[in-house]
UniProtKB/TrEMBL annotation:
Cofactor(s) required, per the database record: Mn(2+)
Positions contributing to Mn(2+) binding: H264, D296, D298
Gene name of the record: rhaA
Pfam families xref list: RhaA
Main location: cytoplasm
Keywords (A to Z) from UniProt: Cytoplasm, Isomerase, Manganese, Metal-binding, Rhamnose metabolism
UniProt subcellular location: Cytoplasm
Descriptive protein name: L-rhamnose isomerase
Similarity field: Belongs to the rhamnose isomerase family.
Pathway(s) it belongs to: Carbohydrate degradation; L-rhamnose degradation; glycerone phosphate from L-rhamnose: step 1/3
Length: 420
């Protein structure tokens, strides 16, 4: 039997098993094919960017590791991302931060314009992918005393307000050029190492700064503003201005999309248990799928329980159309292109597993309060051969099946990354 025949044969066998429990496998694959994952640029260069690459990474986040081959130029980053995309089934999005402007001009964050991102747009068109965006409120001399938009000094706030406004125009440009909305995520690191006396005033200032940034109405056909909360960062252990409660209130009162990052909550809190609640109050939602190990460590996502729970919640709640899935991790101890591929493929695998569940039947069992049957069935379904369906999906999408992609990564490391 050829490899091709084996993949098809195994898929047909698996399909029979899933069909026997009422799952429409072909329908699941059609849905999976359309789901875009937003692959974050910052895994490719340990969050340095190109505007001021020499500056220290601030904002309370940290990338560790010195694996060879990090991208140092926009061309290198594009080449690496392209390599990753070639090993991932489907067409997706690339998520840029403002510090990744591609220009020969010396331009600061309060001066950036769409034209400084033109090359990214041209590349995205060639690759037939979308772009997302993030204003960068860190790694800059105007990140002062741990504060930006909530700083007591108006000059500092004004600098960052201008940056936020410009970021929205860039995201709008992405959306117009690429024919799909660019999600533009506001994560603001402002906070304090020790207990503040006044928790309220910085939060009021953040609210007012954001109101000013969002004062211009921009069509969501082009860009969707998202706001990301956080519990704590390095050097902001006691207090983060933009907490979950802050953004819940802000998002719901202003109609802004809330972004939940899997690493931004107390260690035993999980975002999978929050998705359904937020879905009742806002039309859209965005996630940063990340893996916190003891803290917001931004490890590459693996097929762990929480990743699968997140995807199950989206699928079971019929929220795929309303939920933007972005990745957020940065590991400099391993091949960075492999990190992307593992992350995106895992997100897709977890989605596929969720799509291969006979959800309607399980809901009926639950409504009869037959918790024994619910447990027995969900445990039994875990051993159904979803891997054969995934392999077939990769095969049909013309990307390497199984481990084959890793050889390509090793060749790329030898031929490209090690020569940097
Ligand atoms: C680099 C990103 O803006 C960052 O990871 C942000 O999304 C975050 O999660 C900060 O902890
Ligand atoms: Mn995040």
């Amino acid at each position: 039997m050829t490899d091709e025949t084996k993949i098809i044969q195994r898929f047909e066998d698996a399909k029979e098993q899933f069909s026997a429990i009422g799952v429409d496998v072909d329908g699941a694959l059609k849905i999976l094919e359309k789901i875009k994952i937003s692959m974050h640029c910052w895994q490719g260069d340990d969050v340095h960017g190109f505007i001021n690459p020499g500056l220290e990474l601030t904002g309370g986040i940290m990338s560790t590791g010195n694996y060879p081959g990090a991208a140092h130029t926009p061309e290198q980053l594009r080449k690496d991302a392209q390599k990753a995309f070639s090993l991932i089934p489907g067409k997706h999005k690339f998520n840029l931060h403002a510090i990744y402007a591609d220009t020969d001009e010396k331009v600061d964050l309060n001066e950036i314009e769409p034209r400084h991102f033109k090359k990214w747009v041209e590349w995205a068109k060639e690759q037939e992918i979308g772009l997302d965006f993030n204003p960068t409120f860190f790694s800059h001399p105007m990140y002062k005393d741990g504060y930006t938009l909530a700083h007591p000094n108006k000059n500092v706030r004004d600098f960052w307000i201008e940056h936020g406004k410009r970021a929205r125009k860039i995201a709008e440009y992405f959306g117009k050029e690429l024919g799909q909305p660019a999600y533009n995520n506001f994560w603001v690191p402002d906070g304090s190492k020790d207990n503040p006396i006044d928790r309220l005033s910085p939060r009021r200032r953040l609210m007012e700064s954001l109101d000013e940034i969002f004062s211009e109405d921009i069509s969501e056909d082009y860009t969707v503003d998202t706001i990301e909360s956080k519990l704590f960062g390095i050097g902001a252990e006691a207090y983060t201005v933009g907490s979950h409660e802050f953004y819940m209130g802000y998002g719901i009162s202003r109609g802004k999309t809330i972004l939940m990052d899997a690493g931004h909550f107390h260690p035993t809190e999980v975002i999978s248990n929050k998705i359904s609640s937020l879905s009742l109050f806002l039309p859209k939602l965005m996630l940063h799928v990340s893996r916190p190990v003891r803290w917001d460590s931004d490890h590459v996502i693996i097929m762990d329980d929480e990743l699968q729970e997140i995807m199950k919640e989206i699928v079971r709640g019929n929220l795929l159309e309303r939920t933007a899935i972005g990745l957020d991790f940065f590991d400099g101890t391993i091949n960075r292109v492999a990190a992307w591929v593992v992350g995106v493929r895992n997100a897709q695998k977890a989605l596929l597993k969720a799509l291969l569940e006979p959800t309607a039947d399980l809901k009926k069992v639950e409504l009869k309060f037959d918790f024994t049957k619910r447990l027995v069935l969900t445990e039994e379904y875990k051993s159904l051969p979803f891997g054969a369906v995934w392999d077939y999906f990769c095969f049909m999408q013309d990307v390497p099946v199984g481990l084959d992609w890793f050889q390509e990564i090793q060749d790329y490391e030898n031929d490209v990354l090690n020569k940097r």
